[in-house]
Amino acid sequence: xxxxxxxxxxxxxxxxxxxxxxxxxxxxxxxxxxxxxxxxxxxxxxxxxxxxxxxxxxxxxxxxxxxxxxxxxxxxxxxxxxxxx
Length: 85
Prior knowledge:
Elements: H1 13-21, E1 26-29, H2 33-49, E2 54-58, E3 62-67, E4 76-77, E5 83-84
Antiparallel strand pairs: 1-3, 2-3, 4-5
């Protein structure tokens, strides 16, 4: 899993976008509930502007941002763990 460098108040958005375009997960540190909500809104807005579908998951002290497959190439997991197109 990939991380965005831990910075007090600033997020390196270029790195986050780059990781998402590479299909990797980015983690953004969040100190409190207010940070979670603010970062979630920022992520949604920035991803939408760049045409990237994302899924935001709350972790302990971080938001994990994962790219979602495009609507035309949705993969689902079968019980055997193999992706099914």
